[in-house]
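Chapter review: from sequence to fold.
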Amino acid sequence: MDASTNPAVINATDGDLVPTPDDRGSPKTRNLLGFGLLGLCNNLAYVVMLSAAHDILKKQGAENRTLSDSATENASLPQHNSSGPYDCNPVSTAAVLLADILPTVLIKISAPFFIHKVPYGLRVLVCVASAAVSFLLVSFSGSVWMSLMGVVFASVSSGLGELSFLSIMVFFSWHVLNGWGFGTGAAGVGGALLYSLFTQVGLSPQVTLLTMLVFPVVMALSYFLCLEFPTSFPQFREGGGLSAGSERQPLMIEDVEEEEGPGQEPKYSGVLTFKEKLLVLKELLRFIVPLGLVYFAEYFINQGLLELLYFPDFFLSHAEQYRWYQVLYQVGVLVSRSSLCCIKIRKIWLLVCLQVANAVLLFLSVYWQLLPSAWAVFAIVSYEGLLGGAAYINTFHLIHEEMGDRQKEFAMAAASVGDSLGIALSAAAAFPVHRYFCSL
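The token string follows.
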């Protein structure tokens, strides 16, 4: 039986029709728009915090250290290195990245094993509240630690939102992944571009961040008013998997014909057990590892190297150069995350090799100052964004395509740890690199 033409699965126990993920029909514009807006709002706080990283640390880093901390830091690392070849903040922007990603990693590692007990609607409300709190804390912060706490709330919102919305997709047409990819890519461009433009025209970082409070509101409206949910979707009930509302459901459509004979029970039924989830997780390693390596390389560039690629004779200041590096990187991400309808890439390891080559090239460029101007960096980071976005969207498309119906909801959520884990490791690696170059 062809799964693409079958709108429902016959329950093996009672013969009733059990609603299955709405991936049998044509995509609906309303749902594409809804997932696009959810992707935009979910990732925007995360991106804005990274774009503001240089300003957060430069403004508050020197003001809020104790005298003893200052003495210790000044002995090993210049507060503002103007005599050496690098113009450095006393703390690497990787500090903001680490605060922005560690809560996400912890959520993505643990949540897939229990989050199905929390209704999707409640998860979205937590995401909305956390995003709003993040903007308010950073806006009114009087210390680095308060700013970093705001960044942590942005991370909670982004991490919980990503794994939840990726799980929700399995109830819809697979085409909504295009909307999500475009939205998350647009969040990168929109967050970095809006922050850069608003601060460029004279708005303070505080006012700029306060204007971003509109996006948590848009997230709530997009989820509760825009999406058209299929009947199989467990909106305010426990997100108990594709078989929510049904006691048993076969793993694949073909299993119905093979196993629904007299006296036979389906091989798989109900919500995945802990042991089954571990088996799925083991199978997901072939997706998680390459995705993590791609993101390790690109965020090692973004938060470990880009701050050090400063060209004093360029028409933009150091802070402005850093912001526009982030904008152009996000433009590349937007283009590639929106490319699924045009091109699909199955060889993710090729993207890994190209991204690692990018990181090596820029590391050598920092060490020997090989690049002639910021224009060369603009081109490289745009290409870097293309590779990263392509790795992300094609990885989740492959998971959606290759995993069984019953495993998809868990698999989409669990695999999202790959990019976050790579980002966290890159932040840890960026600290010694920043310290080494800034001590020269």
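Two observations follow directly from the output. Residues 1-26, 64-79, 237-269 have pLDDT under 50 and may be disordered. Residues 23 and 174 are 6 Å apart (CA to CA).
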